[in-house]
Amino acid sequence: MVELEWIDKLRAVFESFGFASIETRSVEPVEVLLKQGDTDKEIYSIGRLLADPDDKAEPTYALHYDMTVPMARYVAANMNDLTFPFKRYQIQKAWRGERPQEGRFREFLQCDVDVVDTREIPLHFDAEIPVIMHEAVNAIGAGPLVTKINNRKVLEGYYAGLGITDTANAIRIIDKLDKIGAKGVGTMLGDELGLDGDAIAKVLGLAEIRGNDASVVQRVKALGVKSDLLDQGLDELHFVMRELERYPEGTFVADLSIARGLAYYTGTVYEAKFADFPDFPTVCGGGRYDNLVGDLINKRLPGIGISIGLTRIFAKLMREGRIQAGRKAPTDILVVHTQGAPYSVIRETAGALRARGLKVEQYHEDRKLKAQLKYAADKGIPWIWFPPAEAGGEHQVKNSATRDQTPADPATWLPE
């Protein structure tokens, strides 16, 4: 019930910014899913249980790993029916071949918001997307979060300025900084990319820069590395951070170590973590991608979006005691089966209350009142309704908490 309430609140926030809901299929072609990058080991393939055991062909279909690539396929398939910029949100299950542990699940609920356009997407969306995420998380009472922001152009331009040609692998390695630390990353940069000590120090020097405002741009420039792509990325990062300066310090932080390992990101990237549990994995992440949708239809369709890991957030807050299980049912009122009353009276009473927008259960057996009241207590139903034993008699309603019982009319009564 709490999760459903969360989903309603998330939907309300997304729709308040003009995003529309879509639902894509759960099964996608493997070749489409593999466009996400180094994810093949975590994708669940699909096959028929009674398939020919001698058929050794590679699987062609799999469960979707996240919502971004399926959304791209959806846009490509419905290009002529969509209004651009296309703004969608999606709340669906996804599946990954993870080893289950805290914060990691094989099946989980994910919430995405994305904007896709046929033209260049204004940078204002780069600043709006994390705000939507921030408001959504606050709406469900799951904050505070710290959202770290970077730009892939800064990383690629900086590494190119250092003479690194394999910038994609450099980004993949730097994305492991949280997991293996600076020493581990430095070793990988040397072993896999052949960087010398000076280049490794400069790569790690960039990753150490972070700040709450646009001043981080000057700190990057002070490192003395130059390239046109770096300048472009710094300009974009400066714009986004300036737009977010109105929020409390620490809400949005420029962090030059953030890389987002998936290959399709091309500009602004985001990662959000619990402020109170900084060692817990990322709970929201996303960024800008210029070619993901276009790769499917040979046309450039840039996009930007962010994902909220609803199951990861929910499970952590449950573990920390911040989500308390409440009532076991949504029922407002139980209409008891008054002893000897015609069933039509119970049914019509429940129908009259239900027609007025109340959530009503009717007890379907003529059992002892004690058993019916125990049922209501076990489910935490706040009101008990006693219809008359015959048509035209007096109705009464009882408050389960106060035990007050008063006459009532099903045509006019409302809970206090």
Q: How would you characterize this protein structure?
A:
The model has no long low-confidence stretch (mean pLDDT 91). Helix 5 (152-161) packs across helix 6 (167-174) and helix 6 packs antiparallel against helix 7. It contains 14 helices and 17 strands. The protein has a 9-stranded mixed sheet. A 5-stranded mixed sheet has the order 14-13-15-16-17, with helices on one face. The chain has a 3-stranded antiparallel sheet with strand order 2-4-3. Helix content is 36%, strand content 20%. It is elongated and about 90 Å long. It folds into 2 domains: 2-319, 2-Layer Sandwich (BirA Bifunctional Protein, domain 2), CATH 3.30.930.10; 333-408, Anticodon-binding domain (Rossmann fold, 3-Layer(aba) Sandwich), CATH 3.40.50.800. It has helices at 2-16, 30-33, 68-77, 124-139, 152-161, 167-174, 177-193, 197-207, 216-221, 228-243, 294-297, 310-319, 343-355, 369-379, and strands at residues 20-21, 27-29, 45-46, 61-63, 86-95, 107-116, 145-151, 210-211, 252-255, 268-274, 284-289, 303-309, 333-335, 360-362, 383-386, 395-399, 405-408. By secondary structure, the protein is α+β, with helices and mostly antiparallel strands. A hairpin with a 5-residue loop joins strand 16 and strand 17.
